[in-house]
Every structure is written in structure tokens, then in C-alpha cells.
Structure prediction request, 268 residues.
Amino acid sequence: MINIRDLSLNEIEEKLIELGEKKYRAKQIYAWLYRDIDSFEEMTDLSKELIEKLKHEFYVKNLEEVHFLKSKDGTIKYLFRLNDGNAIESVLMKYKYGYTACVSNQVGCKMGCNFCASAKIGFVRSLTPGEIISQILMLQKLTGEKISNVVFMGIGEPLDNYDNVLKAVKMINDPKGLNIGARHISISTCGIVPKIKELADENLQCNLCISLHSSKDDVRSEMMPINKKYSIKEVIEACKYYIEKTNRRITFEYALVDGVNDSLAYAE
Prediction:
């Protein structure tokens, strides 16, 4: 069975033609996928025959709310269970300019950063585009708020799940999808240099965020094993390439760790 939210509009059109259905039905189905629905029966403008065909080929629900925590500032963190029993977290944050969804893109993480709780989970698997998008839809459903910004800063390294994240970004940005502007989508990475350059060549106009956390290679390598493969110098060169290609600013993320990376020398 296929998660139908993993498919682009063109892919749904191809599947419908294979099923002997009219191509235009794909636009109807695609529109429903970005609304608050959990079953094909809720697609009220489709025939019963088509709904049965869809149920035989696809499934539409893949997230279940398990728990949530709400902070004093209104930020809400949700724990969602996937169809295979694994769990991920998603966060809704309120700002002056609207609501931001912080989404996960993997169950666990391979990167092993020693200050990050995700590293303790270990890597299980990458999420599909549909599982990524469903987090945004669930946040909207549970809170009744329209999401205007998306950040890939939850569990997992987005550039280690490059193809699925890229497809999800395009579907989030699609006017027929969630219709969220590319400049309202941010991708955070620990610094996988070849993928930063590959993303730059896509010229999607997304915001790139670099998890830096140290200005010195030896300390960053202790905190973030990826630095042993791609040094700070290499990461900065990739950032310059991204700016040159996209003309977009880059955000550097820096978690201060007492006695490790918080001295004046690091700031300088």
C-alpha cells in the first residue's frame, strides 16, 4: 500500500490513468489531501467506485497524536505515532508574523551530535514526503491555526534525507498543495557540504540554516562528528556557494554550552 500523500499531482494523474480513471480526478483528490481528512470516504465529490479503487491502492492516514506539552509562551510540542509504531515530534510556535511548524524528517538521527537528544535515539529510518507534510496538516487540525512558515529543525538531518525532504518542500510550496512560499521554508543542516551545494543548485529560494555550535574545528569535531568529514572552512565555502546561487541569507545556529564553546575567544 502507498501513502497517497507521498505522491505529487503528476504521479497521482499517472496512477489514475493506470486505474482506468480520468486524469482530471487527480486535481480533486490532490486538493482533498491538503484538507483535514483521514479517509477517502471524506472526499465527497468522488464516486463510490473510485473511492474503492483508491482504498485498494493507497492509504491516507499516517499520524496519530500520542501526547502534547504546552509552554508558557504558547509553543506546543506534539508526539505523533506513525503507522509502523515509531514516534516523532513536531512543534507549533507562534510569532508576530504567524504560526511556524517545526517538523521532523527522520525517526532518530545518524549524526551523533553530543548535545542533541535525537542522537540518543539512534537512527531508525527516514520519513517519506507524506509523513513530513502530514505533520503540518496535523498541527493545523489540532490547533485550528493556519501554518505560514515551516522549519526542518525537528528530529533528523534533512540533508541526509535529501530526496524526500526536497519533494516535501516542493509540495509544501506548490500553490495546489499547502501554498507556503519558499522563503517561508527553512532547512537546517549540521553541514553536509555536497548536499548544501546540491540544494543551492535547485535554487528553491528556501532559507538555509547551519548548525555551527563552535567556531573551532577541534571542539566542533567533539560536539559534532560530521565536522571530522567536513571542516568549518568547507562548510563556510559551501555557504558562500549557496548565497552566490540563491542570493539568500544564511542563519547560523549556536547552542551555548557552559565551559565548552561560550568563551570570548569563540565569539571573536
The radius of gyration is 20 Å.
